[in-house]
Description:
The complex is a heterodimer of chains A (145) and B (146). By secondary structure, chain A is mainly α. Chain A is built from eight helices and three strands; from the N terminus they run ββαααβααααα. Chain A has helices at residues 16-19, 23-30, 40-43, 52-64, 85-92, 95-108, 111-125, 130-137; strands spanning 2-5, 11-14, 45-46. Chain B has 146 residues and is mainly α. Chain B folds into two domains: 6-57, no CATH class; 61-126, no CATH class. Chain B has four helices and no strands. Chain B starts with 29 loop residues before the first helix and ends in a 20-residue tail after the last helix.
Amino acid sequence: MVVLITSDDERIVVEDDIAKRSGLIRDLLAAPWDPKDGDREYMGIELPIVSSDVLKKILEYCEHHKEEPFDDTYESEDMFADIDEWDLNFITADPHMAFEIVLAANYLEIPPLVSLGSKAVANMMRGKDAEEICDMFNIEKDFEP
Amino acid sequence: MQPHCSSCRCLGETTSISASSPLNLDGRGIPEAIRLLDARIDVLVAELCDLRRQRNAHIPVNRMPPEILQNIFLLYRNDFSTAALDWTAVSHVCLRWREVALSNSSLWDSPDLRFPEWAEEMIKRARGTPLHVQYSRPPPTMNTSD
Lengths: 145, 146
């Protein structure tokens, strides 16, 4: 088991196989560990930019995909061409959370989840012009093209 | 002759005047008064844009690293199959989006030759990236003279 410590100091215990969906955690667990530094499981892995609510969502995704081979591809051509229904429901359930998930998944190095989140954001922008995109994301026009 | 600021039309003396205090334009001719007011507007607009940029930096979508934003822009572009130039809206949203869009040469690799001026600009922005060009042969016209 692996203990993950979130930015809001919550300690979340996770199975190795699920935690290792993250490239960052995989690398940290593979790194040499000096027992003089303490018990590894007890010490846990600090994730200073991931809050507990976002991490729980990400672990939900990792649990769902734990049997699948690792995918290191970030790029994708089509918006929703190859997204299964579970993933679609997962990422579109809460648009605000989608941003947080993409940021955290990028930090944790989970390429398929970054790609999924990117598709969700692109889909929010679908068919919208610059002004509508500004309104939707609460962006102020800050330059004259 | 009063000195000009090199980066805009303002006079050095106007930059320290706050927005709420009216300029003292007594004794100046109309063109000079307009020039001073324009200069002050320029300074305030630049300041406003700067504040908006600082504000926009805190918006969740703008916390995304540039490589992710670039991928989002590509997905958005690829979704436009017919309206050839509409996807360029991403470069008009805010300064950060514009900088991210312009820094990604592959975003501009599909110039639409139906719009020659834009095509030329897009080829420049593609900066040597291999281009994708589509050509549709017009349908044959019926010869009715025989």
